[in-house]
Structure formats: C-alpha cells, structure tokens
Amino acid sequence: MSYWVKEIFYSLQGEGAQAGRPAVFCRFTGCNLWSGREEDRARAICCFCDTDFRGTDGTGGGRYPDAQSLVNQILACWPTGSERPYVVMTGGEPLLQLDTALIETLHRNGCAVAVETNGTRSAPPGIDWLCVSPKAGAPWVLRQGDELKLAYPQIGFDPSPLAMLPFNMFFLQPLDGPDYTRNLQLAIAYCKAHPTWRLSIQLHKCLGIP
Ligand SMILES: C[S@@+](CC[C@H](N)C(=O)[O-])C[C@H]1O[C@@H](n2cnc3c(N)ncnc32)[C@H](O)[C@@H]1O
Ligand SMILES: Nc1nc2[nH]cc(C(=O)O)c2c(=O)[nH]1
Ligand code: SF4
Ligand SMILES: [Mg+2]
C-alpha cells in the first residue's frame, strides 16, 4: 500500500500532554471531514481547520510506495544516536492511511508512534499515544485513548459527558480563528470550573515554530 504525505518535519509537539516534546510530524494528505479547499469550508463537517493538508508539495511530501520508504524519510529527520524517535502521525486524517504495516515498520525501526485523529475511523493496534479530537456533527467511533482533546467551543458539543469516557487525560484547546481571544477565555473558565479538563494552548503557534 502506498502513502500520500503532505509534509514531514521535525519540531516540538505543541499540543496536549506531550507539549514540548521533540517529535517528527508526518502529515498525511487528505481528510474525510473537509476537502481542504477554502470554497468548501463553510459547508464542511469540520469547518475550523487550521491546517493545509492538500497535495504532497510540502517538505518531505510525496507518494511513498511502501512503509519502509516512508519510515526512512521520517528517520532522516531525527537526530542520530539519541533518544527513541517520537513520531506524530497527523494530517489531514491519518487514520485514512495509517495501517498495521506502517506501525510495525516504525516499531521495528525503534520509533514510538503517536496519532492525532478526529476519531471517525477505528485505529490499527500498536499505537503508543492516541489523541482523539472529536468533531461536532461527525460520526465518533474511537471513544477511548490516551488523551481526549476537544477544540473548544463547538456548538452542540458539551464537554461534561465526555469526561466519563475512558481517556487518561482531558484537554480543551481553544479554537483558533477570529474569535480566539474569546475562545481562550471560555476554555480557561471551563477548566477552572471543571478541573478534570486541562487547557491545551497550541505552543508551536506561540513559539513561531512548525
Ligand atoms: C489539524 S488536526 C489533524 C488531525 C485530525 N484530523 C484531527 O482533527 O484530530 C490536529 C489538531 O488540530 C486541532 N485543530 C484544528 N483546527 C484547529 C483550530 N482552528 N483551533 C484549534 N485547534 C484546531 C484538531 O482538533 C486536532 O486536535
Ligand atoms: N508543533 C506542532 N504540534 C502539533 N501537534 C499537533 C499538530 C497537528 O497539526 O496535528 C501539530 C503541528 O502542526 N505542529
Ligand atoms: S478533521 Fe482534522 S484535518 Fe480534518 S478538517 Fe478537521 S481539524 Fe482539519
Ligand atoms: Mg497543526
């Protein structure tokens, strides 16, 4: 099976419980909740996306014919002779493409595998860190994992019942966009009133790194 990749880059995880951790990001092309075209945004199921995931034109992007060729490119981004490579699979929606062969190849090459997903598709076994970020109006299949990270606020998506689900950590991530200042204040207030929830600020945006 081949893999379509927008870009591969080395940065710090900016979000959630692993914020600050060096990671190689593999951003897959395509998503099932938005085409990625601005003219489709208003009628997309997920209409607040902050990411360009169309095509294969980013650094390290392309069509990789097999798992080993993609893993080689990922490994080339990690500093040699150091800590176990920490690889974040994102997109777009990574679970449209991430399969057992790719996870096994990453593990065989010594990597730990983290996934950022919208939770609409089931996940192959073996993921080391699963972050689920459900979207209002989309089917929600993956209801357990390491962290639940809700972009907040979303109309019709009250966080309180979600805190009963079997996740280890719960984050609200203020929706970036024209109302960011207000959304940040709402998220701070919600976390203070419901301490199960922690604030996830998108550290990479504050730092000006990818
Ligand atoms: C670009 S998505 C890619 C992974 C997957 N499709 C998903 O939605 O989880 C990565 C993370 O960014 C979050 N996100 C996307 N747009 C955002 C925005 N405008 N403000 C805050 N978080 C956003 C998503 O909720 C998700 O947690
Ligand atoms: N630094 C950094 N951290 C991230 N965590 C999740 C990201 C994503 O786009 O999925 C992301 C990203 O794009 N950059
Ligand atoms: S599900 Fe994720 S990648 Fe897809 S449009 Fe929404 S935030 Fe962007
Ligand atoms: Mg991002």
Automatic annotation (TrEMBL):
Cofactor note: Binds 1 S-adenosyl-L-methionine per subunit.
EC primary class: lyase
InterPro entries named among the record's database cross-references: 7-CO-7-deazaguanine_synth-like (IPR024924), Aldolase_TIM (IPR013785), QueE_Cx14CxxC (IPR030977), rSAM (IPR007197), rSAM_sf (IPR058240)
Positions bound to S-adenosyl-L-methionine: 48-50, 92, 133-135, 173-176
A GO molecular function held by the record: 4 iron, 4 sulfur cluster binding
E.C. numbers: 4.3.99.3
Limits of the Radical SAM core domain: 18-210
GO BP: tRNA queuosine(34) biosynthetic process
Subunit structure: Homodimer.
Keywords: 4Fe-4S, Iron, Iron-sulfur, Lyase, Magnesium, Metal-binding, Queuosine biosynthesis, S-adenosyl-L-methionine
Protein name: 7-carboxy-7-deazaguanine synthase
Pathway membership: Purine metabolism; 7-cyano-7-deazaguanine biosynthesis
Source organism superkingdom: Bacteria
UniProt binding sites for substrate: 12-14, 27, 90, 210
Reactions accelerated catalytically: 6-carboxy-5,6,7,8-tetrahydropterin + H(+) = 7-carboxy-7-carbaguanine + NH4(+)
UniProt function note: Catalyzes the complex heterocyclic radical-mediated conversion of 6-carboxy-5,6,7,8-tetrahydropterin (CPH4) to 7-carboxy-7-deazaguanine (CDG), a step common to the biosynthetic pathways of all 7-deazapurine-containing compounds.
Residues binding Mg(2+): 51
Cofactors, names only: S-adenosyl-L-methionine; Mg(2+); [4Fe-4S] cluster
Binding, [4Fe-4S] cluster: 31, 46, 49
Family classification: Belongs to the radical SAM superfamily. 7-carboxy-7-deazaguanine synthase family.
